[in-house]
Amino acid sequence: MYIALALALVLGVCYALAMARDFDFRIGHFALDSIPFYIAAVIAGLGVLFTAAAYFSAGMKIYDPIPEPSPRSAFASVLAAAMCLLVLYDAVRTAAAAVPTTAKTPSPENLGLWSAIAGLFLAASVLLGFFGENRGLKTLPVVCAVIGALSVNLAMFACYFDFTIPLNSPVRNFTTLMQAAILLFLFSEARLMIVKEPKELPPPFQLATEYAAVILGMGVSLGGILWRVIRMILAASGSDFFLAGPEPNLPLPRLVLYFALSLIALDRLLAGSRTLRDLTKEEIEEAERKAKEAKEKKKRKRGAQENNPV
To answer: Nearest-CA neighbor of 122 among 285, 227, 261, 249?
Structure first.
């Protein structure tokens, strides 16, 4: 997991450098000789490979016990909840200032507003998720977790319909990877809300989404945050060298929100590394026996339906 953190930090720094040195706002692309951009792109590819490797390497493992959050998660949860409020404020302000359109495609401003409203449930979800007693298919935590994930999905659609950024811009690809990684992680958090026993939480999906959120979610959001700060400093100093076009990255509050969620993923990953163990021979045999029984039961049920059609 420390390799994942290192990759995220390198990705973030290289992405920020590429934005500061090699991005052409007029066409929405990086320079062809941009070394930082190529490094960031390679690390993003490695992040996808790490995610797949984590998924397929955890098939014979189990959490025992289910990992509990640490004070790192408490800080990240409070930060994420605060950013959800800032995102809502920013979305309301943006939607109010947007020029009405008669286009048939959904307005990115309206989609962003609905995403921000659903983000209030995300704020509640990350705070509720810090307490283990909220697990076990309790209504409020599960509803908040599901709608919270929906908020990120709506944000992805808002980005898709934002045509101020060229459709083939690499920034769109980085942003999509970041939001997809965070969305998958939120799905894994929703699964965490419905389980009580370790055997009810198969590790492959949890591990894969945590690696994705750490490498891609943290890396790209960190790079975007660094660049937005650099751009604000440049604007305050009166420089217009980098201000030749619309900002292609997400607003700062949303980038910080995704960074905070990736910190929760990192904490889950660190905690899980201490509680993850291999299944015993007896546990594997028991799982195979139950799977065989379920398969035979399904086969008998199908045969009965074929012999007695309605």
So the answer is: 261
